[in-house]
Structure formats: C-alpha cells, structure tokens
Amino acid sequence: MAQEGGPPFLLSLVMLLLVLSSVCVCPGSMRSMAAAGTGSNHTAREVSKIAAEVAGYADVAKRIIDLAVFGAAQNRSHSRLADFTDTIGNRVSGSHDLEMAIKYMYNAFAQDGLDVHLEPVKIPHWVRGKESAEMIAPRAKHLAILGLGSSVGTPPEGIKAEVLVVRSFDELKQRASEAVGRIVVFNQPFVSYGETVAYRAYGASEAAKVGAVATLIRSITPFSINSPHTGWQDYQEGVKCIPSACITVEDAELMWRMAQRGQSIVVRLSMGAKTLPDADSFNTVAEITGWQHPEQVVLLSGHLDSWDVGQGAMDDGGGAMISWEALSLIKDLGLRPRRTLRTVLWTAEEQGGVGAQQYYDLHKVNSSNFDLVMESDMGTFTPVALQFTGSVAAQKIMAEVVKLLAPINTTRLETHGEGTDISPWMKAGVPGASLHVEDSRYFWFHHTEGDTMTVQDPHDMNLCSALWAVVAYVVADLQDMLPR
Ligand SMILES: *[C@@H]1O[C@H](CO)[C@@H](O)[C@H](O)[C@H]1NC(C)=O
Ligand SMILES: *[C@@H]1O[C@H](CO)[C@@H](O)[C@H](O)[C@H]1NC(C)=O
Ligand SMILES: *[C@@H]1O[C@H](CO)[C@@H](O)[C@H](O)[C@H]1NC(C)=O
Ligand SMILES: *[C@@H]1O[C@H](CO)[C@@H](O)[C@H](O)[C@H]1NC(C)=O
C-alpha cells in the first residue's frame, strides 16, 4: 500500500482509499476526530511526569538501536525479507503462494520463540489468467499491460475496437458520444497517488456508462520505464462490468499523440481474468505477552499479501519483516514489557484491507485494551518520522517517545497515523501510528514487476526496525496506556 506524505485528500477519495489497498489513508473524519479528542484528564503536570518516565527509557532505547543498527541483528530484517521473498515470491489474495507465505511465517515466528497463532479470514480470489494487448493500427505494436484486480476478462477471441483517448473524466463526459463501442484509453497526468488513483479505481465504470467496451488506463506512477502497474479497481453497482487494465505511461502518451494527429487507433485486448469463490486465509499473529497487563495490547503490523507481480518485497514485505524484527530485538535483549506486543501480518490488504477489517470486527469488543496500533506500508526506506493520530495528551507523550530515537536521527513526530489496515481502530478512537519513510521512489515500483529485493537497502531496514521496536516497547511498558 501506499500514500503520499500527508496532504489532505478529498473526502470522496477517503472512501475510495479505505476500499483500495494500495493506499494508506488519513481520512479527514479521523483527523477531525483526533483534533477534537483532547478527551483525557491529563494535566500539564501529569504530562511532564510522563515525560520524565519516558526519558528513563533512553538506555533501553539505545540498546535496541545498537543491536539493530550496529550489533548482532544488523541486516537481519533485510536477510529475512530476502529469504522470504526469494523462497515464496509474490502472494496475491486467494493464491497458493499466499498460503505458503502464511505457513512460512507461522514457522518462522515459532522458530524465533514467539507465541504464534492464525486467525481465519475469507478473502477474494481473483485470477489474472493470460492477458495481452496489441495495437493493430495505425501500426502494429505490442502494449505492455497488467489487468486490474476484480476486472472481468474478455471473450476468448478478445476485444478488437477503435480507441478513444481522453485525459480526464470531464473530457470523457464531453466526448461521451464518441465512446460508444470503443476502448477508452485514459491518459490522465499524474498528480499524486491519492488523487490520480481514482482513474484506476473508477475508470472502467465511468467508461462503461458512456458505452465503452473496455478501458486501458495509464499506470498510476510519477516515473516509468515502460512498466505497467496493477492494483484494485471497483465496479459501480448497476453499471456493466467491462475489462480494465493498466498500460504504461509511454504507451498512453503514444496513443494520445497519435489521436492528436487525427490517426485512427485500433487495439486488440485479450484478458483471461476471472473471480473465483472467496478463499480461506489467515491473519498471522505473533506475541510477546505482557508481564503486568497481558490483556492490553500494542499492535505492530504490515501485510503479508502482495500483487501477483514482482516479489512484493517493498509492498509490503518490508513492513511485515520490521514488525517481526521489532519483537525479535526485544526478545533478544531479554526484555518483556508490561503490556502485550502483538505483531499481526494482515492478509488480503490489497483487496481493500479485508483481513484487517475482519480482525477489527472480531476484536473490537476489546478496543479499550488496545493501547496503540501501528502499521508500516509505505516501504522501508530511510525513516524520517513517526506519524501519529491520538488525543493532544497522547501526542505530547509520543513526542517524548520519539526523542529516544535521537541516535538514529528520527525524532520527528507528525500528525496523522495512516494505513488501510489500522484505520478501523483509529476511527474507533484507538491511537494509531505509521512509519513515514523517504518514500519518493515508492510509486516507481509499486504494484509492478520491479517490486523486488533490489529495491531494499539493509541499513534502511535496520533503522526502520530500530524505530519500530523502540516505539512499540516503550509505549507497551509505560505505567499507563496512552490517554484517549
Ligand atoms: C475527566 O474530566 C471530565 C471533564 O472535565 C470529568 O467530567 C470527569 O469526571 C473526569 N474524570 C476523571 C476520572 O477525573
Ligand atoms: C550489512 O549491509 C551493509 C550494506 O550492504 C554491509 O556493508 C555490511 O557489511 C552488512 N553487515 C553484515 C553484518 O552483514
Ligand atoms: C477480549 O479480551 C479478553 C480478556 O483479555 C479475552 O479473554 C478475549 O478472548 C478477548 N476477545 C477477543 C474477541 O479478542
Ligand atoms: C545521525 O546524524 C549524525 C549527524 O549528522 C551522524 O553523524 C550520524 O551518523 C547519524 N546517525 C545515523 C544512525 O544515521
């Protein structure tokens, strides 16, 4: 998944982002709730008392950082990620590979001496099948495509049709009469992932409304070397389902230029995609039980599923591995916090946070015992800050906690924790935190064949692991839970 920096998104997009995996969202509703939620009786004096308590963790924070960055655990999360993704490969919702990934992680957690269990989840099972696209006129050219999750396929003989190229939904509406019987190509400019992903999500239904037979959508990325990017798409209810795939930035611009010259473009599209009945899967859970308040939980997480391209190393293998590594570091140092540290590796995030939603529905009865929920799903590049959503009093405490990260230069606390998988908890008022990394290249690789181990850097992963472990441990060990 993924999101950009933290600029506010349109409210309509918030709904979309909650449904679409690829994006960590910070819903506006959540934000205003957090702002209003001074909801605690912590006085200034209490906060300064807690600041002193937090400062008392400087030594333990330093030990965690030393172990992760300079000591025996140096590069461990990276080599774990390499072993995992080289062995399993990618692991799309419903696939045998995802089952293998869950078994792999179950065994790895157990071998690491953590308490591990699986929680059953029903997940979507979409299969890509064979797919291809060919430009036939004005000249023959292969088009690199990736069908979009939940798309229907074409008839076996494919769909051959003239193309209408548009730059926006508005232009599509203005030229609605030209769309009938055509394949609509969207060549929308990239603004930001959060904004531009609307074309991937809704392009097929918008084109179907004006009579198109299929859509080819410019990949949602600021940078391309002719690589198509996949992702989830949503059919609107009551609108005909037409096949939908992403094409490359280069091919979208090529067809746009041809259309500007008045050339007639014909494409043949063939897609074997289909949706099978929901599959059985699991969220994978590993714990270090708290010594004083075992029922109270600090939850760390990343998602174990990926798209069916590349290795899913960046999205979100890295987030999953640092959420494991954090527990390993704490265990290696012989530490056990007051509260339970729980790592959850979500299933079927890419289909709209499916595993996380079912986890929330099951466990929300205990939401008053969830101290902090954490998610890493924007890559594990150089960490720059901790993003946090919570009451003003909780923000003050977290600002003290991140000071403990001075040895790795990431003492910044930003407002608004983000993430598809923790958003149900944050909406219910549970404090939430996410990892903000130097993510400028994230969308270059996102949902492509390029999401491989080659994108990952061991030192960056050491820093991310250290940050994750220090924050989780200290919050789980403070006298009191974070004030709501
Ligand atoms: C907290 O503050 C609220 C509002 O000032 C008050 O109604 C409530 O009784 C206080 N609770 C405690 C435990 O002091
Ligand atoms: C960790 O990775 C860095 C960068 O690749 C390398 O220089 C260093 O030697 C590695 N350390 C260990 C213990 O493998
Ligand atoms: C809720 O918490 C209680 C006490 O820790 C525990 O026994 C129970 O299993 C929890 N229920 C769920 C659904 O997590
Ligand atoms: C933190 O910043 C200081 C000063 O720029 C630098 O010397 C140090 O190596 C940095 N630490 C890490 C872990 O990057």
Please give the domain count.
2
What fold name goes in the CATH topology slot of the largest domain? Aminopeptidase
Rg: 23 Å
Query: What hetero molecules are in the model?
Result: 2-acetamido-2-deoxy-beta-D-glucopyranose
| Average pLDDT taken over every residue | 93
Give the number of helices: 16
CATH class of the largest domain: Alpha Beta
Percent helix range: 25-40%
Q: What summary fits the major beta sheet? A: 8 strands, mixed
Number of beta-strand segments? 16
Strand percentage lies at 15-25%
Question: Which geometry do the CA atoms define?
Answer: elongated
Tell me the strand order in the biggest sheet: 1-10-12-11-13-16-14-15
Task: Measure the end-to-end span.
Answer: 27 Å
Which stretches are poorly predicted, pLDDT < 50 over at least 5 residues? 2-39
- Please, what is the CATH homologous superfamily of the largest domain? Zn peptidases
Architecture per CATH nomenclature, i.e. the level-2 architecture of the largest domain: 3-Layer(aba) Sandwich
**In terms of structural class, how would the helical and strand content be classed?**
alpha/beta
Domain Peptidase M28: 283-469
Signal peptide: 1-24
GO molecular function: carboxypeptidase activity; metal ion binding; metallodipeptidase activity
Subunit structure: Homodimer. The monomeric form is inactive while the homodimer is active.
